[in-house]
Amino acid sequence: MTKREERKLERQMRKIEEANNKPSMVVHPGIGGTIADVLIALVLGAVALICIIPLWHVFMASISDGYALLSHKGAVWAPVGEATLAGYKLLFEDPSIIMGYLNTIIYVVGGTLLGLVMNIFAGYILSRPTKLRSAMILFCVFTTMFNGGTVPTYMVIRALGMTGTRWSLIIPACTNAIFMLLMMNSFSQVDKSYVEAAEIDGAGHFSIMFRVMWPQCKGMALVTAVNTAILKWNAWFEASIYIPNNKELWPLQLWVKSFTASAEEFLKSTNPNYDKNLIQYAVIVAATAPILIAFPFFIKKLEKGMVLGGVKG
Amino acid sequence: MARRKRERDISDHQLAKKASWKKDFKKNKVIYLLFLPIVVYLFIFNYIPMTGLLMAFEDYSVRLGWFQSEWVGLDNFVRLFSGSAFLTAFRNTAVMAVLNLVLGFFPPIILAILFSECRWIPFKRLAQLISYIPNFISTVVVCNLVQQFVDSDGAVTLVLNKLFGLPVQNWLADSQIPVFWIIYALMNIWIGMGWGSIIQSTTIANINGELMEAAALDGANRWQRVKNIVIPALLPVCMMMLTLSVGTALMVGWDKVLILYMPSTYSVSDVLHTYTYRMAFGSQIDYGLATASGLFQSVLGTILLLVSNKLNKTVSGHALY
Which of A26, A45, A253 lies closest to B216 in CB terms? Predict the structure, then answer.
């Protein structure tokens, strides 16, 4: 990207931001315009409510009284019965949820870092003029068009001895050819005259990659990293087939699934502890709250990345 | 300027292609060396599993392995297509994919237009941020929320009963025809609506403000301006997003189906991926059938991807491949 294109892109981003934050210059006078404004606001408010009500319901249920909640019907708007933190107490007395958290952090951080390194190197390599370039690109692209499916992949990972270990959740699926090709596009857009100048000055591949090209490619690198992190955070299926019996390695999501699936089982005991009814709600809150708290910090960057990715194709 | 740059880049790559092997290897050996780990990674996790597709044509036995197991030709496929479970799964996948594409197409566009027409900026920004949230909630949690809300004492069930007199029941256990499909499509809309509207919002923000003002001066009302300026401007982007999603339509977010479905509703909720999963990890393991079904999916997926690519080329002039 040349300086001029960069400035152009920046101008565009600024324009978008302004448009996002300023009302349009067109005013809608009269009663009709006001009614339309109110209607639009109502619809948007309804959409926002639909997006947030389920979470509110779970949060309120998690601090309700376990016994009263059993007979409650419909959404929970306010704590049913006396508000209590018993569900959370039970949840965190069980070491599994803390362990699940730590495991998920290991999988997300490990997978994202490994994927990021591979994406950056692949992107750089594929953007360089070499004789084998088109062969290398084809080698990557083919994997996006055709795949072996769940069963053979599982067998390969089992044959490698990865099942039952953390590696099975970190190494496979930490990157894919699409991310590599996105990085390649990003590296290809760096103006070649910079690279040539650096080469004449005797810079090696690493200093070209990280000193010269990196500043212009880090946006796309962030987008691929966040996408990998979200994939790893969400992943429960892989864990359920690769490490079904190693509960000490289970990621958080698998715990959430097993807690919510077995929610009603405590009722079968003769003298049930009704607080156990709350665990299924508490675990959802515990698994969702960190994202919602981090949300305001990363959302703007991610939004910008989305837009840039869209603008550049 | 950009064109000149592109021409120079192309000539760079062409020069590299013409160089002799010896010279090229000497110059780029570090690059090739760095590419080795990536070759190994893709080879192990992508190319070797492709070899595993041989199992689709074998009576696979764990003892003999992929290359020694008995060759049975197309037997697995004959069994696959003669079983009703597979055909049901195929129909469900197709219907759910189409429903997702069609029903999921409009909400982000409508939402983006409403956002752009909203005049109270802090309110709009807040609504926008909240609408992104479902996209960041994990799959397992979303599925559990759905289960809670459409259960026999769930909020959605009760509201439907009050408004339309529909029966109070666990809707996920209902195997009547469109019920599961509609729940599933609505769930996907809930997840993706807000986040999907970002690209459209950007496109609307890029529309020249003067154009809108001029139209207003000429007496165009709000609806006319949306119809004649905003929607035509949005159309190319929307078509591009639509064709892109055709390529991955077959996936239909199958790990959500795996959580939401139950044996009594397999007739409407089973999809190709979950069918394959049951054949490979369920109670009666049949690797031959599972791999044959997997191969069928892969081939279908590749065809859809190529079709989507072709469509995209005609619609927007860009293409991935």
Answer: A26
Q: Report yes or no: A125 at the B interface, CB cutoff 8 Å.
A: yes
Nearest to B294 among A24, A58, A151 (CB): A151
- Only one residue has tokens 């009666």, namely B284
Give the range of the structural domain holding residue A251, as residue numbers without chain letter. Answer: 85-312
Tell me if chain A has a CB within 8 Å of the CB of B194: yes
Residue that has been written with the tokens 């469900």 in this structure? B92
Residue A4 lies in a domain: no
Of B49, B123, B133, the CB nearest to A152: B49
Q: Any CB–CB contact under 8 A between A2 and chain B? A: yes
Check whether domain B77-316 has CATH 1.10.3720.10, yes or no: yes
| pTM for the structure as a whole | 0.86
Nearest CA in chain A to B160: A74
Domain assignment present for A16: no
pLDDT tens readout for residues A258-297: 888 877 777 777 777 888 888 889 999 999 998 888 888 8
Domain annotation covers residue A75:
yes
Q: What is the dihedral sign for C-alpha B229, B233, B239, B244?
A: negative
The phi, psi pair for A132, rounded to 5°, reads -90, 10
Q: How far is residue A88's CA from residue A283's CA, in Å, rounded to a whole number?
A: 8
Torsion of CA A204, A210, A214, A220, to 10 degrees: 110
Label the pairing between strands B70-71 and B58-59.
antiparallel
Residues A301, A307, A309, B2: what is their CA dihedral angle, to the nearest 10 degrees?
-120
Rounded to the nearest angstrom, the minimum Cα separation between A257 and chain B is 6
The percentage of chain B sitting over the pLDDT mark of 70, rounded to a whole number, equals 95
Residue-wise pLDDT for A14-41, tens only, equals: 766 666 555 555 566 677 778 888 999 9
Tell me whether 0.90 is exceeded by the ipTM: no
- What is the C-alpha to C-alpha distance for residues A184 and A310, in angstroms, rounded to an integer? 16
* Size (chain B), residues: 321
